[in-house]
UniProtKB/TrEMBL annotation, chain A:
Protein's name in the database: L-lactate dehydrogenase complex protein LldE
Gene Ontology molecular function terms on file: oxidoreductase activity
Record domain Cysteine-rich: where: 3-84, 127-221
InterPro entries found in the cross-reference section: Cys_rich_dom
GO cellular component terms listed in the entry, alphabetical order: cytosol
TrEMBL record, chain B:
Gene3D superfamilies: Alpha-helical ferredoxin (1.10.1060.10), NagB/RpiA/CoA transferase-like (3.40.50.10420)
Protein name: L-lactate dehydrogenase complex protein LldF
GO MF, any single term: 4 iron, 4 sulfur cluster binding
Keyword terms: 4Fe-4S, Electron transport, Iron, Iron-sulfur, Metal-binding, Repeat, Transport
Species, as recorded: Chitinophaga japonensis (Flexibacter japonensis)
An annotated GO BP: lactate metabolic process
From TrEMBL, chain C:
Organism taxonomic ancestry: Bacteria, Pseudomonadati, Bacteroidota, Chitinophagia, Chitinophagales
Biological source species: Chitinophaga japonensis (Flexibacter japonensis)
Transmembrane segments: none
PANTHER family per the UniProt record, alphabetical: LACTATE UTILIZATION PROTEIN C (PTHR43682)
Domain LUD: 94-193
UniProt protein name: L-lactate dehydrogenase complex protein LldG
Length: 244, 457, 195
């Protein structure tokens, strides 16, 4: 199985350790992983800001880099959702379609494709899961509390395989953290308030770590935690699942 | 709140200067969302109901022309007078004429978001007619000279002490009494007088049945009924999208409406007005005001399925923390943000951006409007029509230039991280909205791409 | 062209391809009436549910549960032992402003949400159940249906000028979401369920 590793731009630049953990985890689980050099961004920052018409070059670049893999995996639900919903390339639509159908967010790739039942991972801490909206409501990696439907959570399913890890129950299981792409700067006041409230929920329920499958949300929550000088830390789910 | 600034972000920032109040607002509405969840779970076929409701409305949108004709024909047969208003102005003119024919100076009105949308009250006031809003929440905001901040809970932004003060000033209740029970009793006494004196009553309409020509009005307070049954003239104002095909379809909507709105099994009163009572006049004003235009927009026509339950507001994490007035539109929240740009794209260009696109709104919507998808689509339309700020456009063009050129991207990333390490002050300053209340991520020495080059290939 | 024609023309030009109406049969399929659920839901809506065998029990129950009631308007005079103001049916409705209690009959009740279907045939004066300070409704247990779908099946094409589902006393939670009974309509609802 040839897996193309997609490391979104801000993870590449600010959270290389998340990319490394994702790579190592996939390799550990027997995947033949390749990271195509020269990849940049999925185009989501522009599209969500109303500038979808500017994403043509990003789409072309993305399709060139990832069209030959069996699967494309990324440690970010939001970027994966964007590709799934919006990747189109005039003149290369077959390749774009292949990618749209074959791209997975890391945790759903582990549960649905690799069907991971055991992990060599240890993390003896209390952990709160931040359900990022695009992964949850867009990719359905977890059930949504709004729906009258049986609950499930792919990240939870994976974290329950980790030795010593204790999941904390939140008061609001899947409320948005307020990152929202450029929303985080154009609507700074509400964005921060939403982030503070998410953080408070985790802290109040005893989390030592907040994890999730979207680094963008985690970056936002981390920025708030660090400003508050809180001892609570954030880790991407790959970093926990890869921790031995 | 200073609503002279018509921009969601600034109004929301203003709202957030009082954090305890934001917490209170957020928690009150979250409680309503929880009540909705709890009651939805008592209906095993809840999701089927939502799907059914959505499909009924889909049928309505596709056959609206025929249904409107059928409704009109039935309504006339029932003895109602049907008026057609192309826009808000015509709606207001029609209502004014009816009131002038009756020679009244003061009338009662129950909740109608349509009349809010048309700004009927100020129009009538300018023509010497005082409207007394009779829904308690609406009466409260009316006394406070404010617009409603929520379509179902008009004064959800007001504390009881503020309401106590308003009642003391306007209704003469004792100063300092802020007991909801007492204040409601005072409003009951005050408004009963209005009901008994008013010869004309205006109501909104929740559903209009094409098959029978009847109007369904839902309230908990009974104010629509008190007004309409005591008046010589009942004027019912409705948007043309309120039509449902047949009476039996009401069963679907009435099971969803109150459960979605407030977590109640049904509103206290679901009144079906078909014929005027003997000697009474029933006027129905059918209003377009942009609805036929929205119907023609494939990406946005589903917004016309809305039954005005307010569930999307209660669940919206942005609405709960920015308050209804920050949307500077008669209808706030996610649904308001997809309806408003159709009315005036320039004035409401900010609203589709007042969202994180989290998608919770679409999941609670009883008629399954793809609200967050429409927010995304409105953003594209707004930008394409040149309504985005020039600075934002320039910024986005720059970002695009960097992100679509791998070499430039590598260089910019390295340079950026270097700057953040050696001169953090260049980034961590008051001109950076991120840094105002959040730390920047600590800049690593190497990117993932560089690490991979060194360690794998 | 007048506004009517303009609107209709614009709607015709804009409306999408018509889609079929969904089938409601599954939702309206017969199911048992959940009497226990009905009791719970009426309580949760702030109503009082009293079981009776015959209407003659009503006056005593009124005196017991609604003390201090003076003027009573019972649409069927046999339901109430005391005086009913003469001519209450004639006038524009304002003649009922002194009514302390109205006693009316419901055509049917909905077990799932506690709603009672009452039309102007039963009311005689439309404003009666709203203007009276308190409301009592007589409902036969065999007139309970499971859900709103079943209610509308029963109502069918009944031609009534005015009909209303009433599901409790008038209420509001507009002040800080504190529930207060007795907004503009009846302050209490008593259901006499005839079993």
């Amino acid at each position: 199985m040839r897996v193309g590793l997609f490391i979104p731009c801000y993870i590449d630049q600010f959270y290389p350790q998340v990319g490394i953990a994702t790579l190592q985890l996939l390799e550990k689980l027997g995947c033949n992983v390749h990271y195509p050099q020269g990849q940049t961004c999925c185009g989501q920052p522009m599209a969500n800001s109303g500038f979808k018409h500017l994403t043509g070059d990003c789409n072309r670049l993305f399709t060139e880099h990832f069209s030959t893999y069996d699967y494309i995996v990324a440690p970010s639900g939001s970027c994966v959702l964007h590709i799934k919903d919006h990747l189109h390339v005039a003149g290369n639509e077959a390749a774009a379609t292949h990618i749209r159908q074959r791209i997975y967010e890391l945790s759903e790739f582990l549960t649905d494709i690799l069907q991971v039942k055991h992990l060599r991972a240890k993390f003896p801490h209390k952990v709160g899961i931040h359900q990022s909206c695009h992964g949850q409501r867009g990719l359905h990696v977890s059930q949504m509390t709004e729906l009258v439907a049986p609950p499930f959570s792919k990240p939870r399913q994976l974290l329950e395989l980790v030795d010593g890890l204790e999941l904390v129950q939140l008061d609001r299981a899947d409320e948005c953290c307020g990152f929202g792409g450029t929303f985080c700067v154009f609507e700074e006041a509400v964005s921060v308030k939403m982030g503070k409230d998410r953080v408070a929920d985790h802290v109040h329920n005893g989390a030592e770590y907040i994890t999730g499958n979207d680094v963008s949300c985690l970056m936002h929550l981390e920025g708030i935690l660090r400003r508050q000088k809180s001892p609570v830390k954030v880790l991407h789910i790959a970093e926990i699942l890869n921790n031995e | 709140m200073d609503t002279a600034i018509k921009d969601h972000a600034s109004l929301a920032e203003q709202f957030n200067t009082d954090e305890p109040r934001v917490n209170w607002h957020d928690e009150t509405l979250w409680w309503v969302r929880q009540k909705r969840d709890k009651i939805a779970w008592t209906i095993p076929e809840w999701e089927t109901l939502r799907e059914t409701a959505s499909r009924i409305k889909h049928n309505v949108l596709g056959n609206l022309h025929q249904y409107l004709l059928e409704f009109e024909q039935q309504a006339l047969k029932n003895g109602a007078v049907v008026h057609w208003a192309a826009d808000a102005e015509e709606h207001n003119r029609i209502v004014l004429q009816l009131l002038q024919q009756q020679g009244v100076q003061r009338i009662v009105k129950s909740k109608s978001m349509l009349t809010e949308e048309c700004h009927l009250n100020p129009y009538l006031a300018a023509n010497g007619i005082e409207v007394v809003d009779t829904d308690l929440g609406e009466r409260i905001v009316q006394l406070a000279k404010e617009p409603p901040s929520h379509i179902v809970l008009p004064c959800i932004h007001k504390k009881k002490e503020e309401i106590g003060d308003l009642f003391h000033e306007h209704l003469g209740t004792p100063a300092g009494n802020a007991d909801p029970q007492f204040l409601t009793a005072a409003a009951r006494a005050h408004l009963r007088k209005e009901f008994l004196q008013s010869r004309v009553a205006i109501t909104g309409v929740n559903f209009a049945v094409a098959e029978t020509g009847e109007l369904v009005v839902c309230t908990n307070e009974g104010n629509a009924d008190m007004g309409a049954h005591l008046a010589d003239v009942h004027i019912a104002c409705m948007g043309i999208e309120k039509i449902v095909p047949q009476r039996r379809h009401l069963g679907v909507f009435l099971r969803l409406l109150a459960r979605s709105a407030t977590g109640q099994p049904i509103t206290t009163y679901s009144s079906h007005f078909r014929r005027p009572k003997p000697g009474q006049q029933l006027h129905i004003v059918l209003v377009d005001n942009g609805r036929s235009r929205q119907l023609g927009r494939e990406d946005f026509r589903n917004s016309l399925k809305c039954i005005r339950c307010g569930a999307c507001m209660n669940t919206c994490p942005v609405y709960r923390r920015s308050g209804g007035h920050s949307y500077h539109n008669a209808i706030a929240g996610p649904i308001g943000a997809i309806l408003a740009p159709n009315l005036d794209i320039r004035q409401y260009a900010d609203l589709p951006f007042a969202s994180t696109l989290c998608g919770s709104c679409s999941n609670v919507c009883p008629v399954k409007i793809d609200i967050h998808q429409q927010l995304y689509k409105w953003r594209q339309v707004i930008t394409q029509e040149g309504q985005a700020a020039a600075s934002k456009t320039a910024g986005m063009q720059l970002v695009t230039a960097v992100l679509s050129r791998p070499g430039l991207y590598r260089l910019a990333g390295r340079a950026g991280r270097w700057v953040m390490r050696v001169a953090p002050g260049l980034v961590n300053n008051r001109f950076n909205p991120w840094y105002k209340q959040r730390e920047m991520p600590p800049p690593p020495h190497s990117s993932f791409a560089a690490w991979y080059k060194k360690n794998r290939r | 062209m007048n506004s009517r024609e303009r609107i209709l023309q614009a709607v015709k030009a804009s409306q999408p391809e018509g889609a079929a109406l969904p089938d409601l049969d599954a939702l309206a399929a017969p199911r048992p009436v959940d009497l226990e659920g009905y009791r719970k839901v009426t309580e949760s809506m702030g109503s009082r549910l009293l079981e009776i065998r015959q209407e003659s029990e009503i006056p005593a129950l009124v005196r017991e549960y609604l003390p201090g009631i003076e003027q009573v308007v019972a649409v069927n005079p046999h339901w109430y032992g005391g005086d009913i103001p003469a001519g209450w049916q004639t006038g524009d409705g304002r003649q009922l402003q002194q009514a302390d209690l109205a006693i009316v009959k419901a055509q049917l009740g909905v077990a799932e949400n506690g709603a009672l279907w009452i039309t102007e045939q039963e009311l005689q004066v439309r404003v009666l159940p709203f203007i009276a300070q308190h409301l009592a409704v007589v409902l036969a247990v065999e007139d309970l249906v499971p859900t709103m779908h079943h209610a509308y099946e029963r109502i069918g094409d009944q031609h009534t000028g005015f009909g209303v589902f009433i599901a409790g006393p008038s209420k509001t939670a507009d002040i800080e979401q504190s529930l207060v009974l007795g907004a503009h309509g009846a302050k209490s609802l008593t259901i006499f369920l005839k079993v």
